[in-house]
Write a structure and sequence with these properties.
α3 packs across α4 and α5 packs parallel to α6. It contains ten helices and ten strands. It has 288 residues and is α/β, with parallel strands linked by helices. It has three domains: 162 residues, 3-Layer(aba) Sandwich (Rossmann fold); 65 residues, no CATH class; 34 residues.
Length: 288
Amino acid sequence: MTATLIRIEDVEVEYPAKGFRATPFRALKGVSLEIAPGETVGLVGESGSGKTTLGRAVLGLAPVTGGRILYGDRDISHLGRRERRVLSQDIQVVFQDPYTSLNPSMTIEQILMEPLMVRRMSSRDARSRVRGLLDEVRLPKNAGERLPREFSGGQRQRVAIARALALQPKLIVCDEPVSALDLSTQARVLELFTEIQQQTGVAYLFISHDLAVVRHLSRRVAVMYHGEIVEWGDAEQVTTRPEHPYTKRLFLAAPVPDPQLQAQRRAERHRLLAEQNRVSTSTVTVSV
């Protein structure tokens, strides 16, 4: 049986609501999934579905109010700041926006050396590690001397990936890491993610709103809707032959080059959406 790197069991996340006696907002409603060592699990959903909240819960940035998150056999749901800092050696993140995730006043070398120096690595060893990281993400050797503003969006995201790799983590949470990039740059960065995984064995929780993106990387895919996982399984099946109506709508929303087929897909998506609205209306009527 394949070992489990991280297991998410019935996790709930609630945020306090504004106003007297207001009901707290439940961003996650009993979410469960697992990631094996070296595996990529895609997490897909529209804005507001809860996918980013789940990633933040794994990183300790969102309050877990129910269930638990296990890293190996260790419950990491409620770690303190010091314990979370130690765990960051094993769990890292690549954020969506390469323009704001890097300190604009630091050189690339300083950005990449920072987590290494915190771990008390010598300056000499840290600089050697940085040179290796720059080569690993295909940036020029002199990139370390430059500032983030001197790079394109795709190059900045490569720096962010290098920073995540600096401590040789076991898991990287990738929160929409290519959505801010143009299509050609997206393809190159996705290829880089694949190559890095083959070389290092790192696992990814790859968060995206695009089924086509996660299909290229993921072995398994979870689809989130209103804080719940509505479909979970093999990436090929979920992204090409979806079963849940919401996943079907995501599938049909992806553009295709054939105008006639695109029109058919759009009509089918509108039909599914209208059907869902009718079901929701009927449910509300019965409840009342």
